Amino acid sequence: GAVLSVQAAINGRLGQTVGVLRSSLVTFAVGALVTALLIFFFEPAQAVSLLEVPKWQLTGALFGVVYMMVMVGAVPVVGTAVATVAVITGQLGMGMLIDNFGWLGNPAIELSGSRILAMVCLAVALVFMYRSNTRSQ
């Protein structure tokens, strides 16, 4: 979790300097290079290649692009903490929907009162953090 906040802050500054799209390109290019090296040196051979998996499973990378561009644009405006809490709130909300309905091949986990309460608490925290940002400016 801490690494994502540091990454968001760094990429936000880079985005202000070179632009959102270029910042995203640099991030993904460096990430792809490092990942390729890690695969080459440390990943054992797989029985199934990437070309053989269901194509919908490859779409996750598109969400990474959206996430990166939103964070690069949002961090300079609302700050790293608020942007991170917004991401966590969205992750929890979508995660609860995926669990509840068993989407994307995951087992269904029923939506409970405690899960809803956790979501409400996180949403309230986001509101408080955002309001404290706007008051200090």
From TrEMBL:
Keywords: Membrane, Transmembrane, Transmembrane helix. The chain crosses the membrane at residues 20-42, 62-88, 108-130. It comes from the Bacteria. GO terms for cellular component: plasma membrane. InterPro entries: YdcZ. The keyword Transmembrane applies. PANTHER family: INNER MEMBRANE PROTEIN YDCZ. This is EamA-like transporter family protein. It comes from Pseudomonas syringae.
